Amino acid sequence: MRGTDKGSASEEKLLYAKIDDMKEKARRGRTAASAFLTPSEIFLASEYLRRSVKEFDYAFLGGYEDAERKMLVIFPDYILPEYFDTDEVFRAVMIKASGHVELDHKAYLGSLMGLSVKRETIGDIVLIPEGAVVFCTLPVADMLCGHECPLERVGRDKVSVFYADKDICANFSREYEEMSVIMASLRLDCAVAALSNVSRAVAQDKITSGDVRLRYKEEFSPSAQISAGDVLSVRGVGKFIIGDICGETRSGRQRISVKRYV
């Protein structure tokens, strides 16, 4: 087993143990919320919950539908998810910039990390014309919006911080570039070659070198099969969502619709 595989297996077991603890908390009548999970953790948690949770409702919440990082919330039997107030587990915080300096996602995240907060306490950072909206756990939100806010600058820009309307990002959606690609088959190496515009041999090297993630996990087998709905990431190239398998061309190749994260 590869070293990374061993590490991944250990991390999966830890995640499942945390979910089991959350289920026990819900069984005792209390709402249980995780930290903000990565897309990979959300995928693993979803699969685990589908197999193991029968008696509880649960949801992945991140502030808006297309959020990449989300909290897992497991509800006791007397709470209906549709009536749950997300302010009970996280808040939206506005970091308002001056507008005189162009700031990117990395600048906001770096400034927050400089406050010694843990990455899992921060969800998505959504850039808007006024600055950025940050979804964060209640202790971090209270710290940022307290009387003496420790965040005064992002990069070279002076900022102000305050609680934001929870629905500020309700209509926010990620941008994708839609494309249609043709590949020899539904093998992973064929998909990586087509999406990266490289030969199949180079694609195989990328896969065996650990540069490719399929369904949020490193995939080292060039012959792994892709299917509609899969998320495929190629280091240095981009992140893609496999769409419809549109059928074969006259030459027997596969035509696939793909959305590329912009």
What keyword list fits this structure?
alpha+beta; four-stranded antiparallel sheet; 31% strand
What can you tell me about this protein's structure?
The chain is α+β, with helices and mostly antiparallel strands and 262 residues long. It has 6 helices and 15 strands. A 6-stranded antiparallel sheet has the order 10-15-14-13-11-12. A 4-stranded antiparallel sheet has the order 5-6-4-9. Helix 1 crosses helix 2 and helix 5 crosses helix 6.
Quick recap:
With 262 residues, the chain is of the alpha+beta class. The protein has six helices and 15 strands. The longest helix has 25 residues, at 3-27.
> Strand share of the residues?
25-35%
First-last Cα distance: 35 Å
Bulk shape:
globular
Helix content bin: 25-40%
Low-confidence stretches: none
User: What's the multimeric state?
Assistant: single chain
Given the helix and strand composition, which structural class is it?
alpha+beta
Taking the sheet with the most strands, its summary is: 6 strands, antiparallel
How do the SSEs run, as a string of H and E? HEHEEEHEEHEEEEHHEEEEE
Strands ordered across the widest β-sheet: 10-15-14-13-11-12
Let me know the number of strands.
15
CA radius of gyration is: 21 Å
